[in-house]
């Protein structure tokens, strides 16, 4: 050890260290201290452990839609399986409809509160000027013997007290009867479901989401996930099988999660024949209900009712839409072992763009996501048109975007509509199958889904904009006093920035990992590994982080720590560039004893250069003393070393980490002969000094200009300090004059 220490001192005494003078922040330390430790349920590799378990809930539901009163009445039987190692003395059930009660918390003030000028809709959000009855009426809760069970309701959660504990490994059945007034979606901010009324033809489209009481998640990391529903943080749900009967007016068409079981009773013979034809149509949609047929449906309102029966296997939720206004088209998509039906339901108000684009966008999403993760497993994927917003459920989604009264739609609006459809269909993977906890970590479903949504847009719709790292810069430049890290629980984020923080920033982070840090092939394999490890299971953030490291053999803790747990931004400054050449006695006649002799022309070496006009500094390369080799008997071939650096250009770049977020360094070298090249340094160069690094490069060609992050891969928030020769930035007055001219 002593010999090694002597050698270490000898070698490194020749090197000038740039010691970190600011506080060490541990940017490369493991994140084990800020994520849950591994155990037998969740392994250190990021995979489910040998003792992993999760609960299950099967549902049998009968529901009836009353169009006259806009109410939904239902009865459901839940079979709940306790696969946990714990005995449970009570159960928690989600009652999301209670969020619409007047006394419940609301997001009305989230858009800025009262102002001197305000729309009637904003006033409704703020004050609930038009009162609206809302929330569940629980009619009964009975066990399998018909005995009443005691229940306590706390806002959007209901606690069901069991007569005796539900033991580990056992199951129970119980039945609930309930009803609630369906909400008018226009009256509530962030309303994801409810009805939309069309006054011109006096008809309604019903979008039924979180419409029945559902079992809350009980898991190994927090027990019951019984966090209140506050609109922003969405759902944490268990998987199960569903048998659902939906009774609606006879002239209604129902789009739903699951497979239709009684098409012979609810569809006309013509509609059945068209649906059969659609199952063999792989190149274009087949109209199941045409525009003219939908117009005829609108004219009369049936008094009689009919019941649609759907079955769905291994899903975590169930949703449906119902209306007499629907046009309906369908197209088949062949996957490796089954055919999936892509379908769209829309009122005439969606024409012509929905007929042209909706099912096409559904198929685009199914193709790209299936390739990137695992094949879409379900029999149908449905897109239903709504007035605004997008909302996802297993096999079905409600998607905004409509043309104007003349059927016209701008390209930007069409891109937004297509993007919404792709995004909401994509949620079938995240979180409907890879079932993360949306109520706690919105970014785990929205961010991962947006990443593949934007990839789908780039691959299938290259004519439209898709998210790039540059898009997150305005957010990253924001006020650090209000910015939150990505690792912020869903309901703690500001409404004004949750889109950037939970959708865009994780997307850009994954793009950086794929395109610039890990590499496409290895990243894609790792991302697919995560999706397949956790499909039909409940992953946490640590499971994602560990899997990406495990499947790539890449230390990414520095990236996760900075990008997900802080509000630091990327701002690298090319602070100084020095140009050197080796002193050659045959060329230079100056004093040979000087290690740094002089600039060919220009000023003192102590002053930072602003360009290359001063020429290179000359350095003398001396013979290595024997003591520097320690016990080594071999010696460098010094003439060969001299030969390799003779007439070469040596550039020392000092780069500062101004923004605080460490990242790899990408350098573009522009040479005087007109050529250029890109060079990449890993983020590890910041390990010994988190604030500043000096890197040395040997170049055959003479450099004309240098630029950091030339392709904008890392969302650098200030590109003006990335170049050498240094560029003068415009004053505010000069910028103003340029704007005036333009």
TrEMBL record:
Species source reads Bizionia myxarmorum
Report residue spans for region: Disordered.
717-742
Q: Which InterPro entries match?
A: Peptidase_M1_aminopeptidases, Peptidase_M1_dom, Peptidase_M4/M1_CTD_sf
Query: Biased-composition ranges for Polar residues?
Result: 717-734
List each copy of the Peptidase M1 membrane alanine aminopeptidase domain by range: 360-563
- Gene Ontology annotations of biological process type: peptide catabolic process
Tell me what this protein is called. M1 family metallopeptidase
From which residue to which does the signal peptide run? 1-18
Q: Name one Pfam family in it.
A: Peptidase_M1
* Entry's Gene Ontology molecular function annotations: metalloaminopeptidase activity; peptide binding; zinc ion binding
- Can you name a GO cellular component term? membrane
Keyword terms, alphabetized = Signal
Q: Does the keyword Thylakoid apply?
A: no
């Amino acid at each position: 050890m002593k010999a090694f220490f002597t050698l270490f001192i000898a070698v490194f005494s020749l090197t000038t260290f740039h010691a970190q003078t600011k506080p060490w922040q541990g940017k490369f330390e493991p994140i084990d201290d800020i994520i849950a430790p591994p155990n037998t349920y969740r392994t250190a590799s990021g995979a489910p452990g040998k003792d992993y378990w999760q609960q299950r809930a099967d549902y049998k539901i009968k529901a009836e839609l009353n169009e006259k009163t806009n109410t939904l009445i239902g009865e459901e039987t839940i079979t709940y399986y306790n696969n946990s190692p714990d005995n449970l003395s009570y159960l928690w059930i989600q009652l999301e409809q209670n969020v619409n009660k007047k006394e419940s918390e609301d997001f009305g003030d989230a858009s800025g509160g009262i102002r001197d000028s305000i729309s009637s809709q904003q006033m409704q959000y703020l004050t609930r000027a038009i009162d609206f009855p809302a929330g569940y009426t629980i009619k009964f809760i009975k066990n399998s013997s018909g005995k009443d069970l005691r229940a306590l309701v706390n806002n959007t959660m209901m606690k069901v007290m069991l007569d005796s504990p539900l033991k580990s490994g056992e199951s129970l059945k119980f039945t609930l009867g309930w009803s609630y007034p369906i909400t008018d979606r226009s009256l509530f901010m962030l309303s994801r479901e409810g009805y939309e009324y069309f006054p011109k033809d006096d008809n309604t489209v019903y979008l039924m989401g979180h419409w029945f009481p559902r079992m809350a998640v009980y898991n190994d990391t927090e027990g019951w996930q019984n966090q209140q529903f506050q609109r922003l943080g969405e759902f944490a749900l268990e998987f199960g099988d569903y048998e659902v009967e939906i009774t609606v007016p006879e002239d209604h068409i129902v789009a739903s999660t699951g497979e239709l079981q009684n098409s012979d009773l609810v569809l006309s013979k013509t509609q059945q024949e068209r649906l059969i034809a659609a199952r063999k149509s792989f190149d274009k949609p087949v109209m199941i209900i045409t525009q003219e047929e939908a117009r005829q449906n609108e004219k009369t309102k049936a008094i009689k009712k009919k019941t649609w029966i759907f079955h769905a296997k291994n899903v975590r939720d169930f949703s449906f839409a119902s209306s007499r206004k629907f046009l309906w088209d369908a197209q088949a998509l062949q996957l490796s072992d089954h055919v999936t039906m892509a379908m769209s339901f829309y009122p005439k108000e969606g024409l012509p763009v929905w007929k042209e684009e909706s099912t096409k966008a559904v198929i685009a999403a199914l193709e790209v996501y299936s390739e990137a993760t695992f094949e879409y497993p379900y029999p149908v994927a449905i897109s239903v048109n709504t007035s605004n917003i997008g909302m996802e459920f297993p096999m079905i989604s409600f998607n905004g975007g409509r043309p104007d009264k003349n059927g016209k739609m701008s390209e930007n609006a069409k891109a937004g509509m297509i993007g919404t459809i792709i995004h909401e269909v994509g949620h079938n993977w995240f979180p409907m199958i890879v079932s993360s906890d949306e109520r706690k970590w919105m970014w785990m479903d929205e961010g991962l889904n947006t990443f593949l949504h934007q990839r789908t847009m780039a691959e299938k719709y290259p004519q439209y904009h898709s998210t790039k790292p540059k898009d997150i810069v305005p957010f990253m430049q924001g006020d650090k006093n209000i910015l939150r890290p990505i690792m912020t629980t869903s309901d703690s984020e500001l409404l004004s920035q949750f889109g950037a923080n939970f959708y865009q920033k994780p997307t850009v982070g994954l793009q950086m990992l794929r395109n610039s840090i890990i590499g496409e092939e290895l990243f894609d394999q790792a991302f697919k590994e995560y999706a397949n490890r956790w499909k039909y299971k409940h992953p946490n953030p640590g499971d994602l982080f560990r899997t990406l490291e495990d499947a790539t053999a890449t230390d990414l803790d520095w990236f996760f720590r900075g990008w997900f747990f802080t509000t630091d931004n990327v701002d690298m400054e090319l602070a100084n560039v020095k140009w050197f050449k080796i002193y050659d006695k045959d060329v230079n006649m100056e004093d040979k004893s000087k290690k740094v002799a002089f600039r060919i022309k220009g000023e003192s070496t102590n002053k930072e250069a602003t360009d290359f006009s001063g020429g290179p500094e000359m350095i003398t390369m001396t013979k290595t003393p024997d003591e520097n080799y320690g016990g080594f008997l071999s010696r460098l071939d010094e003439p060969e070393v001299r030969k390799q650096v003779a007439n070469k250009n040596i550039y020392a770049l000092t780069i500062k980490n101004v923004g605080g977020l460490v990242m790899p360094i990408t350098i573009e070298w522009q040479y005087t002969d007109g050529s250029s090249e890109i060079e990449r340094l890993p983020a590890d160069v910041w390990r010994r000094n988190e604030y500043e690094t000096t890197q040395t490069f040997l170049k055959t060609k003479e450099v004309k200009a240098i630029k950091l992050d030339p392709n904008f891969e890392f969302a650098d928030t200030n590109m003006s300090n990335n170049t050498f020769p240094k560029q003068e930035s415009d004053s505010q007055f000069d910028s103003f004059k340029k704007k005036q001219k333009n």
